[in-house]
Every structure is written in C-alpha cells, then in structure tokens.
Amino acid sequence: MPPSPVSESLLSLEGVSRVYGEEVPVHALRDVWLDIRAGEFLSIIGPSGSGKSTMLGLLGVLDLPTSGSIRILGTEVNTLPDAQRSRLRGDAIGFVFQQFHLVPHLTSLGNVETALLYRDLSRRERRRRSMEALERVDLVQRADHRPIQMSGGEQQRTAIARAIVTEPLVVLADEPTGALDTENAANVMEIFAGLRSSERAVCIVTHDLSVAGATERRISMLDGEIVLDEVQVPAT
Amino acid sequence: MRRFGELVGVAVAGLTARKVRTLLILLGPILGVAAIVAAIGINESSKGDLKAKLRELGTDLIVANAQDTIGGFGQNPRIPEEAADRVARLPDVTSVTGTFQLSNIVTLPFAAAADYYRAFPVPIIATHLNLPETMDVPLVSGRFLNEFDESSAARVAVIGRDLANEYGYIANEPRTIQLGGVDYGVVGVLDYVLLEPSMDSAVFITFANAVEDWDIEEPDPSRLYIRAPTNTKYVAEEVPTVVSLGGPDGANTSVPTDLLDAQSQVDENLNNLTKMMGGLALVVGGVGIANVMSISVIQRSSEIGIRRALGHSRGTIAIQFLFEALVIGVMGGILGAGVGAGVVWMVSEMRDYTMILSVSGLVRWASVSVGVAVVAGLYPSTKAARLEPLETLRLG
Hints:
The complex is a heterodimer.
Chain A: E1 9-20, E2 26-37, E3 41-45, H1 52-59, E4 67-72, E5 75-76, H2 82-92, E6 93-96, H3 108-114, H4 123-136, H5 152-164, E7 170-174, H6 182-195, E8 201-206, H7 209-213, E9 217-222, E10 225-231
Parallel strand pairs in A: 3-8, 3-9, 6-7, 7-8
Antiparallel strand pairs in A: 1-2, 1-4, 4-5, 9-10
Helix pairs in contact in A: 3-4, 3-5, 4-5, 5-6
Chain B: H1 2-16, H2 19-46, H3 48-57, E1 61-68, H4 81-88, E2 95-102, E3 107-108, H5 114-119, E4 124-127, H6 131-135, E5 139-142, H7 147-152, E6 156-160, H8 161-167, E7 176-179, E8 182-190, E9 203-206, H9 207-214, E10 223-227, H10 232-244, E11 249-254, H11 256-264, H12 268-299, H13 301-309, H14 314-351, H15 359-386, H16 389-395
Parallel strand pairs in B: 4-9, 6-8
Antiparallel strand pairs in B: 1-10, 1-11, 2-4, 2-10, 3-7, 5-8, 6-9, 7-8
C-alpha cells in the first residue's frame, strides 16, 4: 500500500524531556521533537529502556513532561487542568495496550461502551456506536462475552474497538501484538493498517522489527533520544 | 442527570462484579443500622401497650381523695356532699362521682367460702349512681344502681367483672351475695375499669344502703372521680380549694394517667446508650468500607488506569468510587432498616408488644448509614483519583 498523503499536525512533542526521581534523576527522554500528522502509520522502535514507553505516555497525555510542550491540534495540553486534559485525551487519542486492559467484569460490548461514558450520549446511541466499532474488528458475535471467555486475539480486537469508538485523531498502541500468536498478530496489524485515514494517524510502539516494518514511518529511539526518523515502504 | 445515571450504573456494575466482597462490606452498615433500629424499636414497642392504654383511657380523669386540712391525721376524712356539688359546677367539669369504701365487711358468694373471703376481703364501695358515665365504663350485663335503689335503699349491688368471673356469675341470673351476713341481689356486672383496677373485684352499693345497713353517719364520699375534658391540669389544681373553701375539709388530687404517661415515656438513657452502640457499629462498618475499598482500589488499579486513558478525569474516578460507597450506604441503610424492623416485629410478636416503629426513624438511620459510607469512601476515592494512569497500566 502506498503511503497516504500526510497533512496537518495532529500530535506533537516540542523539546520534551522527562526526568524521573529527584535524588537520583533518571533522564527517560531528552529534548524530543516529534510531529505526528493525519494519515500517518508510524512505529516507535527501540530496545528496552530506550524511552519509547515514556514517549507513549507523553504522546497520550497520560504523563506530563518535565520540560517542553505536548500539543494536540496545536493546543498545548500539558498546561491544561486535569479535567480538560482528560477530556481532550478521551476525544483525541485511542489506546491499545499489550495486556489489553479490559475491565474483567464487563462484556466486550460493555468494555467498548466504557469509552463513551460521560459524553451525554443516550444508552441506545452508546450501544449503536459500540456495536459499529465491534463490527469493524469483526467481533459482533462476541459482544456479550466477558474477557475471560475470549481468546487473546479477540480481547485485543475488543481493545481496538474501544480505542476507535470515539473516532480519535491518533491511535496509540503499546506492543499490541506482544501477547498474541503469529496469526492473531498479523490480523491485528492488518486492522491497524486499515485504521489510519485522512483524519487519523496510527502510532505503534514496539521492539519487534517485523511490526515496525509494517509501518510507513519508523522512529528509532536510544537512551531517551530519537536517533532515526525514516519513511519506509512497508513490508507486506 | 444522564451522567448521574451512568455513574450509578458504573458503581453498581463494580459492586455486583464482586458479590462476596460487596456483601462483606455491606455487613457493617446493615448491622449498625439494624442494631439501632431494633434497639430503639424494641424499647418503644415495650412501652407501646401503655401508650395504647393511655389513648384508650383518655387523660382527663381526676381523682380527688379526701384529706384533713388541719394536721392531716384525721380518721376517715370525707368530702361533704355540698363540696362535691361545688366541684361538679366547675366550668370544665362534665361529671363527678363520689365513692366511699366500706371496711370490715366480709363478702361471700356462698357460706362455704367464708374463710377464704375473710382472708382476702372484697372491697365494698358505696357510690353515686353515675359511676359508669364518669369512668366511661359500660356494664357487661344487667344495669347499674339507679334512683329507685337509692331512694328505697333496696338491697341491690353491682359487681366488678373479675368478681363476677370468680363467683361464676352467669349474666342476668338471679343471684345474691352476702355482705356481712346480709343478702344483696346482684343486678349488674361492671366491665373492667382500666384506671381503677381495684373496682374489677369490688361490690357497688348505694350510699342509702351504706347508711342504712352499715351505720355510715353521712352519705359523704371519701373520693371523687372527676371528668374534665378541658383544662384537666388546672381543674386538678383547683379542686382542693373548691373542696376546702377555707374549711377543715380538704382533698388532694391526682391524674392517674399522668403516672401511666410517665411510665410510657421511652427510657431516654437506654435509647441514648443503644444509639451510641449502634453508632459505634456504624463507625466500625465505615472503617470496614474504607479498608476494603482501599484494597479494592489497589486491585482495580488497571481498571482505573484504563478509565483514565479513556478520558475519565481524576474527579470522575473519585466520584465513581464515591458512588460505590454511596450505593453501599444506601443498600446497607435500606437492608439494615429492614432487618431492624424485622427484629422489632419478631420480638413484639414473641412478647406480645404493640409494635411501634417510626418511618422517619428508619429513614433517619438509613441516612446516617449513607453518610457514614460516603465519609468512609472519601479516602479510597481520593486514593483512586491520585493513581498515576501510566503506572497503573504498567503494573496491570
């Protein structure tokens, strides 16, 4: 598939650093500049401890930088109060994690619906949109199943449905295939490739070169810094 | 409103997902509220009979006993007839009946029982004719003493209901009893006199008989029963003066229901003690809620993390957990009030109490449970809100 034409900046890090600890400071990220644009399908790759998970946390506004700015559609979000920042995060970013992080007592549908809570939507509307999202990952038939009743691949597809049900600008995935077998991993990657659009970017954090090879832009990290930002022809 | 419904839904789903844990958390408020409701309910119900009796009797009957005003040690003090008339003319008084109890007269249903009734004498009361009206007591059978009996000094008597039962009296049968060896015909049986239980086993005769057969010098009563539906308290205070009018005769008055009223008051000390103990149970329940919910927050850190990632703010997370505490408080309060009411009902059935339980009391104590639960939920809610989402997602 040829790279999609990229357009406006959806998410950007501007000179972002993140230091953990005070007595013995650990520089997890050093002066990182990154711009994610609509239509991009990119990966952030690096060995353990390279700062890629820290970067994911900052890109998703789950964490705040020690210095620098995080911008969503040009708005600096790290200075916003928690309620506004959370709302923006819920609207703009969809998360997919390696361990799925589904709420165990909720069904597949219930988990997807969780992303639509407190948005002044009727229950019927929530249900309709959630079923649509499940349909996009081909999981409608498992809507009433709890996570424990589903395979790893199905759980991850539920997590993807939950991530996209809010129609986010960026889908951030942390090692999304790490807990899956080869077949399910390939399935999931195919879904991710189909998620990006002219309004949306998909960003995968991984240490797996084959996963990174499937994306169009690859950002390599080492010791908290971006060492390579390259556009590539994705492997099929 | 929609947000409120969603928060309640999330809270209920969170609680129903862990049924055993929820049940254990619920035990605290349930036991606390049930203990308080049961203790107060049983305490009040045990007085319920008295209260019911009080309602039945009314509180407007005054008893005036003759008393010597000079020295107060006179023998057989009496209230002169004209003094009784003065009392009857008081504006708030609707009815006055004078009685005089005769002594040293053996009453026998039949000769063979003489020894027994010498040992346990039956009271003989000379009475005015309007006793049933003043005491507001009907006759079980027959009639009461009337004008003809009084004017002719006919030897007729009315007996109390207990005495009738003891004598095996059959309604309206022609029957005589011996009063000091003199036969009297029984013309009626008076029903139970709740305010004067001694009348239930008494024999009533006219003052004319008392004078004629028992050498009572004057047909003057020693006791007045006064019915004053309005200003009862003031009439009771006024009667001694009206009886005395500065003369040697006097009277002291009492309102029998005052005593019952005092007895029927719920023991406040006991109530406070039980409230304190129930309150303590609720506080312990609250500590339990805080404890279990704090552990739950740690166990559910992954869920908290993912909710934060999905855009729920710290405030929303705090409110979600606070709502779980609120639901526990509401359920605990309702169930506790129900269990407490059940215990009160059971004890009332077993002990034959009149069950008394105020709905406002149930609501009040259920509300206290809600308050305790919410306060107890503050700490775990704050703890949940403060969790760093990135940390929880890594741990999870």
